[in-house]
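Hey, I was hoping to borrow your eyes for a little while. For a while now I've been wondering how a particular protein folds. The fold is given in discrete form, as structure tokens running alongside the sequence. Could you read through the record and tell me how the tokens relate to the sequence? Take your time with it, there's no hurry, and the full record follows here:
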Amino acid sequence: MTSYLTCLIVVALCCSAHGSVIVCEGSYMYLSCPKGQVLYVHDALYGRLHDFDICPHSSTEPQDTSCVSLTSTAKVRELCNGKKVCHLHASNSIFGDTCYLTYKYLEVQYACF
């Protein structure tokens, strides 16, 4: 228990920026860290898990609200981990079209170390 708490304290002290960012399909995301720190991606999701409270869209097609790209986290980590800045495009061409005719979004949870 003590080593687990110590680890949590160390992570909290060394991490000066963190957050969760969401952009709608077709948009760009820009992540950056303060001087001397680099990005670490905790998790990423490209698809749709919510109704249209996130990235509303006027599509007349039925929308799938339970679809995600299974490679989202790995892809975003590959593109961003260890970098000071990272540009991402929320696009089917990068993450695949896991739910055809559904308007998707990219959500990234990250920290700077």
